[in-house]
Amino acid sequence: FLILMGIAILVAAPIALLLAKTWLSSFAYRISVSPLIVILAGIFALLLVVTVVTIQSKRTVAQNPVDSLKS
Questions:
Q1: HSE value, Cβ hemisphere, 13 Å, CA-based, for 61
Q2: Which of 12, 19, 35, 67 has the largest CB neighbor count within 10 A?
Q3: Secondary structure (DSSP) of the chain
Q4: pLDDT tens readout for residues 29-51
Q5: Tell me, what's the pLDDT at 14?
Q6: What is the pLDDT of residue 12?
Q7: Whole-prediction pTM value?
Q8: What is the largest CA-CA distance in the chain?
C-alpha cells in the first residue's frame, strides 16, 4: 500500500499545487501556496493509510479462522 500511496502522491501533488495556485489567483487578495502544505498533506495521508492497514491487520490476525469457514 505504501508504494501505491507514494506513487499517487507523486502524481497528485504537482497537479494539486497547480490547481490551487490557479484557483487562488482569481481572488482579489492574493496568497501563495507553499509546497510544504502539499508535502504535509501527503505525509498525513501516508500515516492514515499505515494506521488503517495496521488496525485491519491486527483485527484479521485476532479472528478465529474457523468462524470464517462456518459462515
A1: 6
A2: 12
A3: -HHHHHHHHHHHHHHHHHHHHHHHTTSSS--PPPHHHHHHHHHHHHHHHHHHHHHHHHHHHHS-HHHHHH-
A4: 888 888 898 889 999 999 999 99
A5: 92
A6: 92
A7: 0.73
A8: 64
